[in-house]
Amino acid sequence: MKTKFVFVTGGVLSSLGKGLSAAAIGAIMEARGLRVVNIKADPYLNVDPGTMSPYQHGEVFVTEDGAETDLDLGHYERFVSTTMNQRNSFTTGRVYRNVLDRERRGEYLGRTVQVIPHVTDEIKRLIQEGVDDADMCIVEVGGTVGDIEGLPFLEAIRQARADFGHENVCYIHVTPVFYIKAAGEMKTKPTQHSVKEILSTGIQPDILICRCEIPIPRDLRQKIASFCNVGVDDVISAHDVNNIYDLPVVFHEQGLDDRILRRFSFFAARPHMTRWEEYVHRARNPKHHVRIAIVGKYVHLVDTYKSLNEALAHGGAFNEAKVELRYVDSEELDITNAATLLGGCDAVLIPGGFGSRGTEGKIAAIRFARENAVPFFGICLGMQLAVVEFLRSVAGIAAHSSEFEPTAAHPTIHLMDAQRKVTDLGGTMRLGAFPCELAPQSRARAIYGTDSISERHRHRYEVNPAYHELLRTHGMTISGLSPDGLLVEMIELPSHPYFVACQFHPEFKSRPLSPHPLFSAFVKAAVDRQVRLGGGARADAALSAIEAK
Ligand code: GLN
Prior knowledge:
This protein is α/β, with parallel strands linked by helices. 38% of the residues lie in helices and 22% in strands. The strands form 5 sheets. A 9-stranded mixed sheet has the order 13-12-14-15-23-22-21-18-19, with helices on both faces. It has a 7-stranded parallel sheet with strand order 5-2-6-1-7-10-11, sandwiched between helices. Strand 8 and strand 9 (185-187) form a beta hairpin. The longest helix is centred in the last third of the chain and has 17 residues, at 517-533. The protein binds glutamine (GLN).
């Protein structure tokens, strides 16, 4: 079968949930038995988002093959079972780099190199390169229609209809419909204008996905349809949902999958939506409610920890627990106020991070969790600091990471020799999937139910092998190691109800339909503790435990 292409553009403003829509379309198509792949084409000039500030760009999502990508790829992987890689996202920066490299190599044979056709051809080439053997490829174009920098992308996807075949291309445009509460009215004018705008590039949307606070009634969808040259059933109401995983069901109930397939004159099996429905049902009807503290630096920006938040939600649904996240700014935390800031929580999580700001606060939070038997989960920097805290408090040495104190007496977290050499050349991170062996009888081994795992990394520093023995003699189990035994991938404390940390980022691999075992186990530990302490008593219990010291 020839691959079908669905191009998703957005109008009027950003943050409409275009990425989620593209992901949810993937989910319903996959539920109909198609092999789906998603691609994100971003019009900014950075070659990849790896070095962009989380303040501006949200989380950097890491793929199996080590690409540092936009957080939308995380949505794709959570909704669609295909594993994304380097080829599933590209930016204008990458497009131009390829074109300019080719020009330098003389491959254009002295011709004038231009946006059309050379840049647009390269965009189409990159899209086709990402297709693999998928039945359907959903391409999300970043930015908003009308942006100057997005024009070459729109031109490329316009040409795609002729190049890939008229019957193989479907255009979906995502726009807002504003609900004016005071007047109790919905406003469709911005959608009309946005469709006019995209029409001026030569693209007639086949389907409109309209974002609105509340469901858009049929008469309004009819109005939009007649202004925008589509059928009323091609106007889909993407109203706010409590749970993002509702989206595939909401789309399917309105027949979006049928409309897309109709556009392709293509028949597919009836969809199996039950797994999505079951997930949402479980998430909506929790039996427990746990509060988890996330101690980090960018805590006021929820998108920074997108995959983490989702993974915790998946672990929550698995345990029939509502997971309430309490973000604690590590710069405000120290050992004197840890009990006040963390006392009301059922568990503590330290996520990954870079830069020294707030590290002592994170170390204080780890100490609080360790000493008070509060379930603890450390990820990447969270694991490194758990090692530092343990060696400081339990082994009594002046431990630190050489990332934060280059002249530390005990550089317990450091750059490995191989890594140090790469540093000089500029490329430094351990990125993407690496294998890990789990220790027999460890909690990690029990959680995973297997001896060997593979998880994704994004960091430079490692636990210094010179301290492995000291950690062990003081009672820390190194429960995960690289196959050569050099790199610490997981640690745990057997004397603690739940104290587990990992050097990798398990959140990148958690999916609603298959939650990551480390998150399921962590949420379960929080639930168990709460049940043990008895609901409301938890805050007081934790507080009095501190006061008693
Ligand atoms: N800053 C640490 C390192 O580079 C941890 C990185 C992370 O948490 N992702 O090793």
